[in-house]
Write a structure and sequence with these properties.
There is one protein chain. With about 270 residues, the chain is an alpha+beta fold. It contains eleven helices and twelve strands. The relative contact order is 0.07.
Length: about 270
């Protein structure tokens, strides 16, 4: 698997880094683990989870491998037949999720897990959880500065992404020029929608504020979501709640708040799920 994705890293090397960090007093460690990798099987995933849990990280982010060869040319070398099919991907995630829950981790949102005494779990319990391009966090600062090629920064005004090509990014930096490639300015309406999307992604429920209830577009979208996903959500005019079985569909539901034109894909996936 590691050879196929070009990310070879031995267990021994990982253990050395973990031990060195802890020896320097860094106790809060997060592991990023991937499911849906080429050539991955339930057996290899079980071995990965066992090795990771032996190192006892405070947090684990469980991300699905994204096969986008049109964006990453190296991925075009990966045979598509080596990739798990959608149902197999879902089964791999569920295998990992149940394993982590069985080891005492708390599930945070859609893809993060934390020890109960970790700050992320405490933020989850206290309703202080936030989600950014980097995943879930207990940091409520309105600024996230991205460093490096393709990194995305978040500001109160909107988003900015750095040049994705490493060479061009480095050239801009070396010459003292901005390395920003593109951005998006948030309107007041965008911020109202973003708040609801974040609530759904963090807690699978969203409560409309007075300002949001006064926004006709948002209320209409909520009504439409409730009608379209009637077997997966409940809606009382103020709070939209996603049923437990439908939590894996939260992205499809949340996107309806901002891009209703995605409804065809959402409906097709939702119909398959039920």
């Amino acid at each position: 698997m590691q050879a196929a994705i070009g990310r070879e890293q031995s267990q021994a090397l990982t253990e050395t880094v973990v031990n060195d960090l802890r020896g320097l007093g860094v106790d809060a460690l997060n592991f990023d683990l991937l499911y849906g990798l080429p050539f991955q099987t339930p057996q290899t995933l079980a071995a990965t989870l066992e090795a990771a849990l032996e190192m006892n990280p405070g947090r684990i982010a469980l991300f699905g491998y994204a096969h986008v060869p049109w964006m990453s040319k190296r991925q075009s070398l990966i045979p598509t037949e080596a990739l798990p099919k959608p149902q197999a991907r879902l089964a791999l995630f569920e295998q990992a999720r149940l394993t982590l829950l069985g080891q005492g981790y708390v599930q945070i949102g859609i893809d993060h897990f934390a020890r109960p005494d970790d700050a992320l779990a405490q933020a989850f319990y206290d309703k202080r959880l936030k989600r950014s391009f980097q995943g879930y966090t207990d940091d409520r600062a309105p600024w996230l500065v991205g460093l490096g090629a393709s990194a995305i920064s978040t500001y109160p005004q909107g988003f900015a992404q750095n040049i994705p090509v490493t060479g061009k990014y480095a050239e801009q930096v070396d010459q003292g020029r901005p390395a920003t490639w593109r951005g998006y300015h948030l309107s007041a309406a965008d911020r109202l929608k973003a708040d609801l999307v974040e609530q759904l992604m963090c807690y699978h429920a969203a409560v409309l504020s007075p300002a949001q209830k006064a926004n006709v577009e948002i209320v209409n979208n909520m009504d439409r979501i409730a009608a379209r996903f009637d077997e997966a959500v409940s809606w009382d005019g103020t709070t939209l709640t996603i049923d437990r079985w439908a939590h894996p569909l939260v992205r499809l539901i949340a996107v309806q708040l901002v891009t209703p034109e995605e409804s065809t894909t959402a409906e097709r996936t939702y119909s398959a799920a039920i």
